[in-house]
Amino acid sequence: MQSSSLLKPFLSLFFIMCFGILNAQQPTRLSGKIINAKNEAIAGATVEVVGVGKSQAANVEGRFSIALEPGKKYTLIVSNVGYDTKMLEDVEVKAGTDNDIQIVLEVSNATLSEVVVKTSVKKESTSALINFQRNNTAVSSGVAADFIKKTPDRNTGEVLKRVSGASIQDNKYVVVRGLGDRYNAAIINGAQMPSSEPDRKTFSFDIIPSSVIDNIVINKTATPDLPGEFAGGLVQVTTKDVPTRNFLNVGVSFGYNTNSTFRDFVSNERGKYDWIGFDDGRRDLPKGFPSSAQEYRALGNEVGGTQKQLDLTRSFRNDVYRQDNSRTAPIQTYQIAYGAGKRLKNDAQIGAVFSLIYRNAKMLYDVERAQYEQAGNAIFNYVDEQNRYSTTVGAMANIAYVKGRHKFAFKNLYNRFFEDNYYTRSGVNNNRLQDIRLWSSFLNQRSLYSTQLEGEHQLTNSGIKFKWNGNYALNMKQQPDLRTSLYVNPIGGADRFEVDPDDTRRFFSQLQDHSAGAGGYFTVPFNLLGEKQTFKAGGSVLLRFRDFKSRIFRYVPFSGSNFNTDLNFLPYDKIFEPQNISESGFVLDEFTNNEDKYFGISALDAGYAMFDTKFSDRVRLVWGLRVEFFEQFLRTKDRSAEQVVINNEQWDVLPSANLTFSINRDNNIRASISKTVSRPEFREIAPFQFYDYESNYGVSGAPSLESADIYNADLRYEWYPAPGEALTLGGFYKRFVKPIEFRLDPGSNADRRLYFYQNAKDADTYGIEFELRKNFSFLNPNSDFFQNLAFFGNLTYIFSQVRFSDQVLGKDVSADRPIQGQSPYLINGGFQYSADKSGLSASLLYNRVGQRLSLVGNNSLGFPDIYENPRDLIDFQLAKKVANKRGEIKLTISDILNQKIMLYENVDTDKIYKKGTDRVFSSFTPGSTITLGFTYDFSL
Question: What is the pTM of this model?
Answer without folding.
Answer: 0.86
